[in-house]
Amino acid sequence: MGYPPLMAGTCAGAGEPVAALFARAHRAGCATSLDLAYVADDSPVRAIDWSALLDRLAPETDVLCPSGDDLARLGELTGTAALCAGVESAATHLVERGAAVVLVTAGAAGAYLRTGPRAALDRLSSACGIDASAWADRSEWAGAPKLARVRTASGAGDTYKAALLVALCRGDDPGSAMAYAAGVSGRYLAGDGVLGPGVLADPRGT
After folding, report:
1. Which parts of the chain register pLDDT below 50?
2. Across the chain, where does the E strand assignment appear?
C-alpha cells in the first residue's frame, strides 16, 4: 500500500483502517507492504501523531519502505547532519516496533535495509518463499548507482522499492534483492526504462 499521508481517511484512529486491511491480508495468507509520503506543512494530516500511527502499523507491516525525507517530516529521523546514522536509528526503531523488513531510500546516500529476527519474517517467508534465516537480523547499506548520466530522479525511490518487492516475491536473498533494486533504479535514473513484458526487467539479464 502506498502513501497513507496522501489519503487522510486511512490515517484516522492512528491508522486503524490500514491496520484492519493488513490484518485481513495476513488472514488470507498475504504479505503486506507500506510506503509513506512526504507530509507538507499545509497537509491536512500534518498534525497527526505519526509516532502513534507507526506504533499501530509497524506490527502489521511485513515491508515498510519510507524515504529518509518521509521519516524526517514525520519526526522519526534525527541527526540529519549525519544522515546515515539517523536513517539507521530510525529504521532500527521501526523494526523494534514490529516491522519485519524496513527499507529506507536516502537519495545519493543509497538505501538502507534493516530486518527483524527470524520469527518476525515468518509471514513474509510463507507468502513469498524467501529464506527467513537469510533475511533475519540484517543491517546493511547499498550505495546509489554510479551513472554517466541522469535523466530524472523523480520516482527513483519508488522504483527501487518496487524492484525490491519483485525480488522478494521471487525469493531472492538480501544481497541479490538489493543489487537487483539498485540496477533497476539505475536504469530508471538513466532514462533507459525498466519495464519488460508485464514485469520489471532484470538488469542482470535473467
Report:
1. 80-81, 196-206
2. 33-34, 63-64, 101-105, 111-115, 139-142
Nearest to 130 by CA among 63, 203, 183, 64: 63
Longest CA–CA span in the chain (Å) reads 47
Q: What is the pLDDT of residue 204?
A: 47
86 grid coordinates: 539517523
CA 64/CA 101 separation, integer angstroms: 6
What are the φ/ψ torsions at residue 113 (nearest 5 degrees)? -110, 130
pLDDT in tens, 51-95: 999 999 999 999 999 998 888 888 887 654 456 778 999 999 999
Residue that has been written with the C-alpha cell 513469498 in this structure:
128
User: Is-contact 183 204, C-beta < 8 A?
Assistant: yes
**CB 54 within 8 Å of CB 97:** yes
Cell of 99: 516491522
Burial degree of 108 (CB within 10 A; 0-12, 13-18, 19+) = exposed
**What are the cell numbers at 79?**
541527526
* Helix (DSSP H) and strand (DSSP E) numbers for the chain: 8, 5
Q: Which backbone phi and psi does 12 adopt, to 5 degrees?
A: -65, 145
Stated pTM of the model: 0.86
